[in-house]
Design a protein that fits this description.
CATH class of the largest domain: Alpha Beta
Strand content: 15-25%
Structural class: alpha/beta
CATH architecture of the largest domain: 3-Layer(aba) Sandwich
CATH topology of the largest domain: D-Maltodextrin-Binding Protein, domain 2
Order of helices and strands: HHHEEHEHHEHEEEHEEEEEHEHEEEHEH
Number of strands: 17
Helix content: 40-55%
């Protein structure tokens, strides 16, 4: 067994969400990926994936193995770059699409580091919302939030976010601080719509194995998350935000966490995607390395308090619901 190739296939299957997508990224057959990953599992004596008719998901052993295997692959690539291309600096124009709030909070403040490292690269960054933008705008690589669809793209998982429910200190003084999920029924909640057009008006929580799902109510709804963030800071109500993008509001005291004893569920992932033709692009490769570095550092900063976060599987409603998420779930229960 070629263990290095098996690790590469395993990593790509994790990041792409299926053996078929991993196979497309390497231009090989799905059985080739399945066979080698199976050989890896037999050699390790553990199951790395749980396999169902809906796809594959990591087992606990698989999650632990992936945390190490992705670092092994990245370290090997770095070594090859240093030994094989010493002195060769990438040059040219790279076009990157970034989900707006991820760019503002996670990447743009750190872009000067990339520009200083690669003075011969001209970087063009533009806001994007969906995976279709990579073709519509002829982009080299995109950074998005959610769960990547099954498309002929190379996908790299960058980070798992968690949700933080918060409100401004002024709002908490005026309306009280929610302590239990059911308390949200008596509060104004700021509700966003995802890129699939689903109004995310149903929030789920867990504490000690107990789960609660609340249909939140609010009079301020928007497709623009940044507008809702500003409204929350101004005292408009309770908002659910991603931990990697909310730091500046918390550190400035503009927002404070509520429901601190509960874990908000169904938080999405942050991922990069690019066409298979870009696999050998030095520009894409160095920017992807930069992304991995940035989100690795963000994860390390977070692990000092919350620990490493396992990847969250795609909710069943994610690419099937329309209108309000609460209405879709109600229909499914009938």
């Amino acid at each position: 067994m070629d263990k290095l190739r098996a690790i590469q296939y395993f990593n790509r299957a994790v990041e792409a969400g299926s053996f078929a997508a991993a196979a497309r990224s390497f231009d090989i057959s799905t059985p080739a990926v399945t066979h080698l990953v199976g050989s890896l599992e037999r050699a390790l004596g553990v199951s790395l994936f749980s396999r169902t008719t809906r796809g594959v998901s990591l087992t606990a052993d698989g999650q632990r193995y992936y945390e190490s295997s992705r670092k092994i692959e990245a370290d090997l690539y770095d070594l090859e770059q240093r030994l094989g291309q010493r002195g060769a600096k990438p040059r040219g124009t790279l076009t990157v699409g970034i989900r707006h709030f991820v760019g503002q909070n996670c990447l743009v403040p750190r872009i000067p580091r990339f520009l200083a490292r690669f003075p011969d690269i001209e970087l063009v960054i533009t806001p994007v919302a969906t995976i279709q933008d990579i073709e519509k705008q002829n982009l080299d690589i995109v950074v998005l939030v959610g769960w990547p669809p099954q498309r002929d793209l190379v996908v790299r998982h960058l980070g798992q976010v968690s949700f933080i429910v918060c409100a401004s200190p002024e709002y908490c003084m005026r309306a009280g601080r929610p302590e239990e999920p059911d308390d949200l029924r008596d509060h104004h909640c700021l509700v966003t719509r995802n890129v699939e057009g689903v109004l995310l008006d149903q929030w789920s929580f867990e504490k000690g194995g107990e789960r609660r799902t609340i249909d939140v109510k609010g009079r301020l709804l928007s497709d623009d998350r940044l507008w809702l963030e500003e409204a929350a800071c101004a005292g408009a109500g309770v908002i659910r935000l991603m931990d990697l993008t909310v730091g500046r509001y918390l550190s400035a005291g503009l927002l404070v966490p509520v429901l601190k004893a509960w874990t908000a569920l169904e938080a999405p992932t942050i991922y990069a995607a690019y066409p298979p033709r870009q696999r050998r692009s030095k520009l894409v490769r160095v920017f992807l390395d930069f992304l991995i570095e940035v989100f690795g550092q963000l994860d390390q900063e977070r692990t000092t308090t919350s620990g490493s976060l396992p990847r969250v599987p795609k909710p069943q409603w994610w690419d099937r619901a329309h209108g309000r998420r609460s209405a879709y779930v109600a229909r499914e229960k009938k």
